[in-house]
Protein: Adenosylmethionine-8-amino-7-oxononanoate aminotransferase
Amino acid sequence: MEAEEISRLDREHVWHPYAAVHSTAPAQVVRRAHGVRLTLGDGREVVDGMSSWWAAIHGYNHPRLNQAARDQLDDMAHVMFGGLTHEPAVRLAKRLAELTGLDRVFLADSGSVAVEVAIKMALQAAGPGRTRLLTVRGGYHGDTFGAMAVCDPVNGMHHLFSGVLPQHVFAPLPPAGYGTPPDEAYLADLSALVGAHAAELAAIIVEPVVQGAGGMRFYHPAYLRRLRELADEHGVLLIADEIATGFGRTGELFGCDHAGIRPDIMCVGKALTGGYLTLAATLCTARVADAVGVLMHGPTFMGNPLAAAVAGASLDLLAERPWREEVKRIEAGLLDGLAPAAGHPGVRDVRVLGAIGVIEMHDPVDVPRVQDVVLRHGVWLRPFGRLIYTMPPYACEPGDIAAITRAMVAAATSRTPR
Structure:
C-alpha cells in the first residue's frame, strides 16, 4: 500500500496507545527498520532515539537475531507450555537464573503480566493478613490492574481507575539525583513507614535507581539498599521491576547492581528479546517458589519457542559486545550534547544516567510540535508529560547520539509554531 493509504486506514481503524481513538496527530508510517534507523513512508531515514520503547538495544534487523528466528521457525514457532517444555525456554531460564542469582523463572508475555505474576507470587508467599504492597510515588509498573495499583496514584497515567484499584502503601518520592548524597531524614521516614505497615505488607516493589515512565527520575542507590534492609528486617519480600532498567540500560547489567543487592523477585522484559518479540519473565528465589507452591497463572503464549530462541541469541550478543563501553560512550555523548539546554528559561532540568538522557521542561510539552522539530532534525522521539527524553540503541555511533541531542535541544529551546 502507499503511505497515504496506510495512514487513511490507520485513522479509520487503529487505536494507538495512550491516545484518543480520534487522535489529531497522525501516526508516522514506517516502511523499514535497519541498524538504528527507521525508514518512514515518505522515504526519510531517521535515527530511532527510543529503541522502540527501550527494547531494541542491538538495533534493528540484526543478522544474528534474524538467524535465530529463522532457525527456530524450522522446528516450531509455538507449542503450549502446560505439560510440555522445549530447549529454547529451558536454555533461556538457565541463562536468566545465572545472570540474576534467582533460581526460578516464570516466562510471561509482557512486562505488565510479569508484574502481575510478581504480585501474585508475593501475596501467595506472604503470611496471613499480608495483603498490601509498599512502593514509592513516581513509579510506573504497567497498565494492567494489579500493576496500575502500584503506579503513582496521583500523577500517574491511571488516575481514572483510582476508585476501583487495591489501596497500597506509598512512600514519598525518593529524593532526586543519582549522585546526590542520601537524605538521612528520608531514610528515617522510609524506615518508619515500613515499620508501621509491616504486619500487612506482602512485598515492597520498586524500579531500581531509575523511575521510568513515571517521570524518568534517577535516585541514589542508598535508598534501594535501605529498602532491602527493611524488607529483611520485617520479613517482607522485595520486588525489583527491572523491565526498563535491565540488560545494561543504566550502565550496570541490572539496576539492583548499583546498590549491590539482590531482590527476592525480579521482573524483566523489553530488551530481553532485543526488541524482536514480546517476552518477559518473573524470577524468584527458591524460598519464594517453595512458599508459593502452585502459581495459578498461565499465559497462552508462555515460553513461546520463537521468542525464547531470539531472547537467548540477544543475551549471547549482549555478552559478546562491549556494552559497558558502549553505554559509557553514549552517556558521555548525552552529557555533552544536552548541556546547551541547561539554563534555558523553559527547561527545568537536564539529567543523564547510562544510556538515558532527559530534558525536563517546566510545562507539559506539545508532543506533535516536538515530534515535528525532531523529525526535521532526522530523529524519532516520543516525548510525554514534561519530558523530552531518549533511550537509544547501544549500537548508536557518536554521530547518531549527536544527532539525537541536537534534535532534543532544538525541541526544548524552539518556539516555532507547528
Notes: The chain has two domains: 3-61+322-413, 76-320.
